[in-house]
Specification:
- Helix content is 27%, strand content 36%.
- The protein has 3 helices and 8 strands.
- Strands 1-5-4-3-2 form a 5-stranded mixed β-sheet, with helices on both faces.
- A hairpin with a 3-residue loop joins strand 3 and strand 4.
- The radius of gyration is 21 Å and the shape is elongated.
- 13% of the residues are buried.
Length: 147
């Protein structure tokens, strides 16, 4: 079996294949002793825990129409960042329990890895006002100033 590195590191194929066979499997992801393996299409990728900077769950809500109505289906993903904090892989996980279990195993194998999603910059909020009311107020004041 041929293995492809995400972070362009070179590892001996025989040790990778032995580790892959003995790794714990969760969906398309396998948690080994020194590497995290996952499959995308016909390729098997790996990343060493030492090169794994951040890993976290991302839940996407996919709109679905069913016989009894419509709703949103949650789809679990594992997101992996490299040492430059760039998103390098988004891997589908079979469910919420599997996502939590996977993060726990990554924490045991690699305690230096950050398991929290990076915070996005938040808009400045005035006390006592909702975001929508602030946006409406700004829109009113800018259109009123143009007249």
């Amino acid at each position: 079996m041929k293995f492809y590195s995400i972070d362009n590191s070179v590892e001996e194929t025989t040790t990778l294949s032995q580790e892959y066979k003995s790794a714990h499997e969760i969906g398309v992801i396998r948690v080994g002793e020194t590497c995290l393996f996952f499959k995308k299409l016909l390729k098997t990728y790996y990343i060493k825990y030492s090169n794994l900077y951040r890993a976290y769950r991302r839940v996407l809500l996919v709109p679905a129409k069913m016989c009894c109505g419509s709703g949103d289906l949650p789809v679990e993903n594992l997101v992996i960042h490299n040492s430059k904090d760039e998103e390098i892989a988004v891997i589908s996980v079979p469910g919420a329990k599997a996502g939590v279990l996977l993060l726990e195993e990554i924490k045991q194998k690699s305690p230096d890895t950050i398991l929290v999603c990076p915070e996005k910059p938040k808009a400045e909020k005035l006390p006592g006002k909702s975001v929508k009311s602030q946006q409406a107020y700004k829109a009113k004041t800018t259109t009123g100033a143009e007249k």
